[in-house]
Write a structure and sequence with these properties.
17% helix; 19 strands; Pseudouridine synthase; Archaeosine Trna-guanine Transglycosylase, Chain: A, domain 4; alpha+beta; 3 domains; 6 helices; 287 residues
Length: 287
Amino acid sequence: MSTTSTDALVLVDKPAGVTSFDAVRAVTRAIGIRKAGHTGTLDPFATGLLVVLTGAGTRLIRFVPGEPKVYLATIRFGEERDTDDRTGTVSHEAALPERAAVMAAVPCFVGTLSQVPPDYSAKKVEGRRAYAMARGGAPADLAPVSVRVDAWDVVSLSSDAMVARIACGGGTYIRALARDLGRAVGSAAHLAELRRERCGPFHVDQATTLERLREGDTGGRPLTEALGDVAREVLGPEETARVTHGMTVVARAAGERALLVDGDGHLLAVAHRADDRWQPDVVLAHA
């Protein structure tokens, strides 16, 4: 289902060489609106799914389910790079690992892991971005962070490269996984290709391309699809009036959160359960 509303969910298949910011800007130009935001950035060299909300939909970004994230990654062995991906300068070279050693090491990178973010990352240290410090010749001393990796599905493995589908939680750096896998097998490695296939319930197969956006086909979806599998409560006229003023209404649907919609299916508010009532968190409808 698509919509021409300026308040919409737009799934974008970002190509390589384009920043996430530029992809979002293409959406705003196609829809003719200035306000839009995404639920999670992709590096310029990476491709795949960007989940974008436009207009009043930007107020719902914090509610949009984003996990698991699923990536198709190509890891190249033999070279480590300062950015941990193909865009960087070679910082270390090593002999190629044994394939059996690689397969034996993969399970070590599943579960809750302690991961040091890449030097060239958006992490902040004393108010400065790590990538800015690295570009200035003084990489930050980044502390390990806890990340979650759900699964690796090894698609192919050759003497110098692995292609794997990796499911993980938000905040996980796939290029750091590539770097650490190379080190774990006594070699070196970096991320050569990356494609995000999935964020929560959304898949890149549902996404529009920049070419279609430029042709005016936004592939926009109703905001009611943005929160995934969440209860939906249809309100009558009196309840609608209450909700537009931020007031509670009786909760008839099951669940801890709900989309409150009018009789035509238009999204009025997102609410949480407070005993036997829905308390609006974000009201989109005007009183």
